[in-house]
Write a structure and sequence with these properties.
191 residues, seven-stranded parallel beta sheet, 19 strands, 0% helix, disordered N terminus
């Protein structure tokens, strides 16, 4: 269909937008709650306002890809469903996800980090029930606590896990043949 346009989300009117096309640029303005279902599609976003600025916003990745073309913080929930839910962050960019990765109702869910940029996870994803695999294909995933990863395994397939504080990580870690790294910030310890 045609491209361009704006969706205005008001706080009193939660909105669900099914995405069923190959690529999209979706500008969303306002402080309302947005539920975006990326189902076998790719969506590119350039700012947090594209996702709604409410912590109640939900990004459902059903074998879809969210590409981030600017550095910003997403306050809402990411819910991967299936094995191909991907967040791709461009080179020299950072997506800070201060919300949680929800996985309590989905067995076998997986979230994949792609792109040369950085995904910073700061939510308690263990409490949110994320038991799926977090796969790092490229770039960096930064965490400051073990619960930022959830309770599932970490699969390093060519990227970097960066830890920024001292903690014990009990998640299983799988490493492929691709060069992969664990970067522990100076003056901290990862056990």
């Amino acid at each position: 269909g045609a491209s361009g346009g704006t969706v205005l989300v008001k706080e009193s009117a939660p909105t669900t937008i099914p995405v069923t096309f190959n690529t999209a640029f979706l500008p969303v303005l306002g402080a309302g709650k947005l539920t975006m279902n990326i189902n076998n599609a790719a969506v590119t976003l350039i700012e947090n306002a594209n996702l709604g600025t409410s912590s109640a916003s939900n990004l459902l990745l059903q074998n879809g890809t969210l590409t981030v073309d600017n550095s910003f913080t997403f306050l809402g929930t990411i819910t991967p469903q299936g094995v191909l839910g991907t967040v791709s962050v461009g080179e020299s960019l950072a997506l800070t996800h201060s919300g949680v990765i929800n996985g309590a109702n989905f067995k076998g869910n997986q979230l994949t980090k792609d792109g040369q940029g950085q995904l910073i996870l700061s939510g308690n994803n263990t409490a949110a029930g994320f038991v799926g695999v977090l796969t790092i294909l490229d770039g960096t995933v930064s965490i400051s606590a073990a619960n930022n990863l959830g309770s599932g395994p970490l699969f390093l397939q060519g990227g970097t896990l960066h830890t920024t504080s001292t903690f014990v990580l009990s998640n299983g870690i799988l490493v492929s043949n691709n060069p992969s790294f664990i970067n522990v910030s100076s003056s901290t310890t990862l056990t």
